User: What shape does this take?
Amino acid sequence: MKTITDFIQRLLKDLHLDGVAPNVQKALELKIGAIVDEQIESALAHSLTEDDWKVYDEYRRNHPEAKVDEAMQAMTAHRPDIEAVMEGALISTYDDLMAREEAVRMVLDEADSAK
Assistant: This one.
């Protein structure tokens, strides 16, 4: 995936939710985005070192107009393993949300069968 937005769109498609009303899709995108952010933050919190944060702080000091994402990219650029950590968090999130969807689908199927 190129961006988190691409990831979210792919997930919505795989969940068969890409054709919902625009307001519902926006709400889903925001909720999934929050889940993804939380997972990535958690993964990074366990992986980043003091030196990584020094790189981040230096970038913010030298580029005060830069967005936080740019500083994060600068920080992780010197640590290729961090990208793997973030990808792992995305894969974990994807797997978790797909499993939840499957569980809901099974409950709905059982409810239909009981009628």
